[in-house]
Amino acid sequence: MGSSLEQGKKGSRTAIINAQKVTITEKDEAHGLITARDFGGTKKWRTCYTSDGTGHSMLYAMDNKAHQDKVEIHERLEAMSLITDEGRCYGAVARNLMTGELVAYISKATTIATGGYGRIYSVSTNAIICQGTGQALALETGIATLGNMEAIQFHPTAIVPVGILTTEGCRGDGGLLLDKDGYRFMPDYEPDKKELASRDVVSRRMTEHIRKGKGVKSRYGDHLWLDITILGRAHIEKNLREVKEICENFLGIDPAVDWIPVRPTQHYSMGGIRTKYTGESQTLKGLYSCGEAACWDLHGFNRLGGNSVSETVVSGMLVAEYISDFCDSYDSSIHIHSSKIEIALKKEKDKLETLLTNKHGEDAYVLRRRMEEIMMDKVGIFRNGKDLQEAVDELEELYKRSKNIEVFRSKSRAANPALVNAYRTQKMLKIALTVALGALLRTESRGAHSREDFPERDDENWLNRTITSWPNEGQTMPSVSYEKIEIDTMELPPGFRGYGKDLTKHHPDTKVRQEKVDAITEKLQAEGANRFEIQHALMPYLEKLPKKYRGTNERLGENV
Predict the structure, then answer these.
(1) What is the pLDDT of residue 5?
(2) What is the pLDDT of residues 101-123, one digit of tens each?
(3) Are 528 and 521 in contact (CB under 8 A)?
(4) Do 152 and 274 touch, CB atoms closer than 8 A?
(5) For the domain with range 338-487, which CATH number is right: 3.40.50.2300, 3.20.20.70, 1.10.1060.10, 1.20.58.100?
(6) CA torsion sign, 356 to 359 to 361 to 365?
(7) Which of 11, 134, 153, 222 is the most exposed place for a label (fewest CB within 10 A)?
């Protein structure tokens, strides 16, 4: 939606839809309610927003609330390992990044909410800290498992060359993608959704178009253009002000006048710590995870725009309740001997000493840069067996070499960025291996995982989650197994996504389940059931929710 400064007033306002200026008239009863904008892969304008800084607004609100409630926060501390005993997590060993001191935190429940692992790639929209260390902590217990680690999303519109994100709201509000000739090419590939196809589709179409020689040449590689000048300065300075600041500060351009150079870049990780619906690890009691750090099953193999903040709000709200219930139960009782805690502390201290005292070892910066290059070049938007096998082989070799890392430059045990990079690189290589190996073994294309040598989505053989673990410290590769997904419990059986040609090998149970869903829906509608009753009949969920959240959502014209 490309509305002007008229937004916020009652009545009609202008918007840009499909490159055309149109007039939208809001119902009087909708005035004052939360507004929404169009985003990729959806039929409805369902993405609630605050200008183009929704995530920042949420962060500030949470930060303010934490201060208001006097939540105790221990800053500049980094978890190094989880403390476990007999299949139970009892907390973590943490390192003070300023003093180097190791501290053991003993807890009834431990939650990992560290975000994604995008920084295993050379260019990513992720924050610098999103290195996958949270997932690695779980993996290194040898007990907790990770799910769907090969499911990596590339966002279509990161600026070139630095890879900072320009929000999908640019296209949701009416912005266009153009090639070197100034030609709008997306309608040729996706005539229905155009620029607002889902992210994985737009990223692939952009890459295909660049491969055809339609990219703009630059010393940083070929790119395409994002044109939001059509929206007008007033709209950009109100609803896309962060994009404007990014363009001014990092590109030296004014997006109300100039086109923005963009290219698909690693953005989101659908995989993470495999959890139950409660957020608890399926295999390690007392360990919880939520948000992008978890594989909580909100996204499948591709995330729609806006669903990350949805997951943050919903999983944070629900998992917190489940953790609270766990802490109030007998099951959360702490039964661990102090000697086990001392062993965990000594183990981490010995690892650090080895890194600092090693002679004639490997440079962690060299290993990490090569890992990032491999992931970008061989485990990217388009994948194939040859590249993936080469990636797995070289990443395994890099991991073996990482066992002999020497911390060069500074030998300080206190504040020491080289030491931090050394132990993080070892963890990042493990995560990179789970991604590359999972992608190699999954001989199909699904969501953001696109195999050029296996273009079909194969529901008959691959309708399952990839589960990775590292049960033995001596392993140089993760262990991989699979978790079957049951179609006969789905509210929405898997179907054609609606992009391009249908390259799906459908599961025989899909048709059976769809017929059952249709019959149940038709019967209940005839009986006057509402949408909540129909949904619960198709996929019972109420008893899984905390009692305080079992009410119905509010929807204009329905219960508002």
Answers:
(1) 40
(2) 999 999 999 999 999 999 999 99
(3) no
(4) no
(5) 1.20.58.100
(6) positive
(7) 11
The residues assigned a catalytic role are 155, 171
Q: What are phi and psi of 352, to 5 degrees?
A: -65, -40
Place of tokens 């920084």: 119
Class of domain 489-549: alpha beta
Distance CA 365, CA 417 (A): 11
CA 48 → CA 33, 51, 66, 128, distances in Å? 10, 10, 23, 26
Q: How open is the CA angle 441-443-449, to the nearest 5 degrees?
A: 90
Give the bridge partners for 77, in sequence order.
96
* CA distance linking residue 405 with residue 443, whole number of Å: 34
Confidence band (pLDDT; 50, 70, 90) for 304?
confident
How far apart (Å, rounded) are the C-alpha atoms in residues 128 and 89? Answer: 28
Q: Which of 165, 247, 222, 149 is nearest to 199 (CA)?
A: 165
Which amino acid makes up residue 426? Q
CA dihedral 113, 422, 123, 498 (to 10 degrees): -40
User: Which residue carries 């609100």 as its tokens?
Assistant: 61
Domain ranges of the chain: 12-54, 338-487, 489-549
What predicted TM-score, i.e. pTM, was given to this entire model? 0.93
Encode pLDDT of 333-387 as tens digits.
Answer: 999 999 999 999 999 999 999 999 999 999 999 999 999 999 999 999 999 999 9
**What pLDDT, on the 0 to 100 scale, is given for residue 42?**
78
Which helix (H) or strand (E) segment is 269 a member of?
Answer: strand 260-269
Cα-based torsion angle of the residue sequence 425, 426, 430, 432 in order, rounded to the nearest 10 degrees = 20
How far is the C-alpha of 259 from the C-alpha of 253, rounded, in Å? 8
* Helix residue ranges per DSSP H, 88-178: 133-139, 169-172
